[in-house]
Amino acid sequence: MKKVLPFTKIIATLGPATSTKERIFELASAGANLFRLNFSHGDKKMHEMNVKHIRAVEKKLGIPLGIICDMQGPKLRVGCFKNGSVTLENGQKFRLDMEKAFGDETRVTLPHKEIFAALKKGTYLLLNDGLIRLQVTSFGKDFAETTVISGGVLSDHKGVNVPGVTLPISALTSKDLKDLRSAIDLKTDWIALSFVQRPEDLIQARRIIKNNAAIITKIEKPAALNNLEKVVDLSDAVMVARGDLGVECPIEDLPSLQKHIVQICRSKGKPVIIATQMLESMIHNPTPTRAEVSDVATAVYDGVDCVMLSGETAVGEYPIMAVSMMRKIILHTEADPVYKKSMDVISLPPDHLIASAITSTIPTMSKVLNKLTCVVTYSLSGSTTLRVARARTGTSILNLTCDDRVIHRLTLAWGVYSIKTRMIKELNDVTPIACKAVLKNEMGEKGDEIIITAGMPLAEKGNTNVLHVAVI
Q1: What is the pLDDT of residue 42?
Q2: CA atoms of 188 and 190, how far apart (whole Å)
């Protein structure tokens, strides 16, 4: 019996509610394909234990599970208040400065000289996830006088956003550099970079990470949108991080920005993730809102590679139900004929490579072959498998490779399921191995057709030049 596998993958964030081997097993069994370790919280020991648990669960279930290490990035926060918080009224004056004294109703510490260096008169500062809005009236190298435009309660260590301003800071702080070394030592698969503003941030990160892990660029700063194509080119995958992006940009722009980023990533063949508040109400409720269900479905209809759960699985009361619900929404959406039509909407520009010529024919072949059950790629580097995923073939993709790193990284890609195989040296051996793998993984039945891609010579990377149709 052929299994029904979702094309769109699920990322579950681990936290206090789920950082045990038993919970991770339940999350993976419910449909989680990757696990996110949030380095803004927890310590090295906790992350090491989570990695150990994930790999143990992976072995027990016999399926690859990806691990994402999410760097904190340069979090900009105010200091502390004398009484823990203050209430700011609309129209009042409020000062931000570098003084270390406790704050009150008139001022608070902002220990980030980079912000003051980038200010202009009239610049808006957003505090506490954009709930409080200040406008700069005057400033110096270590202070800013502001008027409160939208007031409210401001408490210790609340975040600060400076929309529309490129700040002279690196995406990697000293904490991030230390965390990067931990992530590399743990042999995790993906590293997510927070608050990327410019291509140079990625060049710096790549120099440090090398090929020890793949890079996810989180798009959450308007400055990154100004260089979006270059940023995507330098990334291995992209995350639409709607939390900070929705604070930094007008919130009404967020849906169109999401679609634009997804289309750019799909056109360039880079996996794209939608994150933040997808099933937020399930942190405390066993069912999501109708709007949340539509939000997840919309991302699926757009053809994203992954949808992500954050607080829902990290601290939520119903983490397993949240994953199960997300999987249900994905499967029902992907079964809709409208979904299949939507996969053909984006025209993918050719890059004049033989591998692209081969993979670009697969969607057409999938419409002609009545019994096509899946596409099998034999890929040492995973690049051809990503090209097939980019084409949104309408069928699952079974990736055969002898490299564990490739297997784990491709857990992020649309429709891709990987198994480890021995190094294949003869082209004649590829077809029987592919057919056997499809049957063993319940991705097809005898009499079904499969499309196989490979390259001659088989031992060389990046050399896909063969397409073969076989009957199981």
Answers
A1: 86
A2: 6
